[in-house]
Amino acid sequence: MSPPKRKRGGQGPADKKAKKVKIVADGGEAPSKSEQEKKNEFTIPAPVSMGKWTNKERVLIFSSRGINFRTRHLMQDLRNIMPHSKADTKMDRKDKLFVVNEVCEIKNCNKCLFFEAKKKQDLYMWISNTPHGPSAKFLVQNIHTLAELKMTGNCLKGSRPLLSFDPKFDKEPQYALLKELFIQTFSTPQYHPKSQPFVDHIFTFTIADNRIWFRNYQIIEEDASLVEIGPRFVLNLIKIFQGSFGGPTLYENPYFQSPNMHRREMRLAAAAKVREKQMVKEMQKMKRTQAKEEVGKDVTADVFLTPAEEKPVYIETEAPEPKVMKKNKHKAFKRQRMQKAQKTKACGE
């Protein structure tokens, strides 16, 4: 049988027996009440922050149009490991980068991770302190997402990370500025509502080959060893600007090489390799022809040849006598000779 229908606006038996929710701060106990009221109530502990969330850092993570699937998965991974992040729709390519400051202001964010795709193969990342700056532009290389790595490590979602930096970050001024920018962007604020009061993974920033290598490790409780979780990527610094997404240039990386120039050098190296192979083939062909010519000539052919006797050289001191040219007598034709022979024969008869 179907359950009885309730009238609109009325309260059913389930509504009458609904339990009341009471939030008790500081883990205290509710005042004593009747047993019936106690059965219909249950207490929920207050939020962890309790108004102590003072460092209200919010990071906006979004991208421009034209990114590939790997960049999309990388953005999602960063949002998962950064509980203080926010997402937004993709920005049109025709819009200028200064529009990002307005988007961050609308989203109430003071930090931004903006991924910019070019030529459907090059990925650039902006890290900016909006709206006053500074900001840094990187070329992102060697991207590996969580789905690709399939690491054995695992950490609690929303837990706060430890940030580990290479000692080189304190030796040069540009890296010191990037260190402070990374600390403010990637570290989860204490008592954030979406964060968990646990520290079980580490973000490492290492400088090698004039690049910044990002890794994410889990801390295993048994022996405090580290297990990589992911994602992982490499940041190749291009420029550091004083403003947000623009302004005067504070630092420009002299070791940076654009992807277009790198691809051009690769093509030139491949072309030089092909030319070298062709030259090697031509040299081998010339050596084969020379070897054939040498084999065709018999070396022992001149062994039994005796040289001719040398004749004494005779020098004529007088001019030679002129030769007498004989005049050729006119010879009659055969028909004329036959006619003449017939005439002489007839005369003789």
UniProtKB/TrEMBL annotation:
One example of a Gene Ontology biological process annotation: ribosomal large subunit assembly
A single cellular component GO annotation: nucleolus
GO molecular-function term, one example from the UniProt record: rRNA binding
Pfam assignment, any one: Brix
Transmembrane segments: none
Cross-referenced InterPro entries: Brix, BRX1
Subcellular localization, as worded in the UniProt entry: Nucleus, Nucleolus
Matches recorded under SUPFAM superfamilies: Class II aaRS ABD-related (SSF52954)
Domain Brix: 57-246
Region described as Disordered: spans on this chain: 1-40, 317-349
Domain of life from the UniProt record: Eukaryota
Keywords from the UniProt entry: Nucleus, Ribosome biogenesis
Compositionally biased spans, kind Basic residues: 325-343
Family: Belongs to the BRX1 family.
PANTHER family linked: RIBOSOME BIOGENESIS PROTEIN BRIX, RIBOSOME BIOGENESIS PROTEIN BRX1 HOMOLOG
Function statement: Required for biogenesis of the 60S ribosomal subunit.
Name listed for the protein in its UniProt record: Ribosome biogenesis protein BRX1 homolog
